[in-house]
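Quick one: structure tokens for this chain, please?
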Amino acid sequence: MKICVGLSGGVDSSVAALLLKRQGYDVFAMFMQNWHDTEGTLHGDCEWEEDKFVAEMVARKIGIPFYFIDLSEQYRQRVVDYLFDEYARGRTPNPDVLCNREIKFDAFLQAARRLGADCVATGHYCRKEALPDGTFRLLAGTDPGKDQSYFLCQLTQEQLARAVFPIGDLLKSEVRAIAREADLPSADKKDSQGICFVGKVDLPVFLQQKLRSVEGDVVEVFGAYYADSAKHARDRALTAKGKDLTDSELMELSTPIDYSDIRFETEIYRSGKHHVRKTRDKANPWARRIGRHEGAQFYTIGQRKGLGIGGHANPVFVIATDIASNRIYVGEGEDHPGLLRKCLRIAPDEIHWIRPAEAMPVGGERRCRVRIRYRQPLQDATLLMREGGLFILFDEMQRSITPGQFAVWYADDGELLGSGVI
């Protein structure tokens, strides 16, 4: 079998290539460049060139052919344009998930096959298992602290059939040890961070390549708002019912609170010894305007950093954004009511099953373990399939359920069953 390793210059893909070579496979390496621009990035202009240099040294050390491919146009069209579009709509996408679905196991795979490869191998910490019926299970990596199955949650059976994950059964410490023992140039290289193939970015600056900066209000929402909110009271009542909810009740519970009913009236007052006329907001028991921002599309639910807001005893978090009014709403404290929700919905056309045989019929119900962001501990939940989509009803309140992110659900044995955009 001929296998192409996506060699990134990092230790994980390096060890993946080494293990496959030791196992007797016909292995070659290919390094992909997916990004040229540096606007908004927090690294030097030549980081990809350094990665390519290390990857080429690794290939030489292992004794395998090395190729280079530029997939930047496909990456821009299929990942970055999607990222900009989602942020413009006030949603928070996960470009790493899209990169794996659209680039590594599609555009890159096709290029590898043109060079004679049967499969593509990567350094992901996840596992694949073949079943007697010819389908494949996707399982969490053995290392619980490095499991990367979340990022592969959108792969199809066709893509899995051509995928190889050589380090999925190893711990990160074991991977480092193998690299050092083999004296690989990447043995002590730090793990990459930030957006896949773009790197660490100043997100507002990066997004301003296409999204216009427009000042708007930062509104702090008080606990009194929820005490008076009919929607909040209704959500509490529906939560108390458990899973015995009608389709319309599930839709209602999965819909976040809309803060558009918060309005401010102004009054004129005189200030200073010269009695200069000024304008201020009248006291509002529900909320107050506490600052300005440069564009609601640059913020995400649960965000804490970059708000520039002081004068609070506890951290302040974004609890909602409103693109139409260009407002962001914030709340003080990790347990602020605006951060907590019990239910989310995946639209019918966004539901993806790794193994179609596992797909739930309308009316179906299933207990699963779910995460709504990478590295979040798995959460116990009930999946309810309805005409209006897949509803995930958590056992415990969840912080910062974020539209645009992927919810991913697992069986008890670690099999990744499916995923969908929140």
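The chain has three domains: 2-207, 216-338, 341-421.
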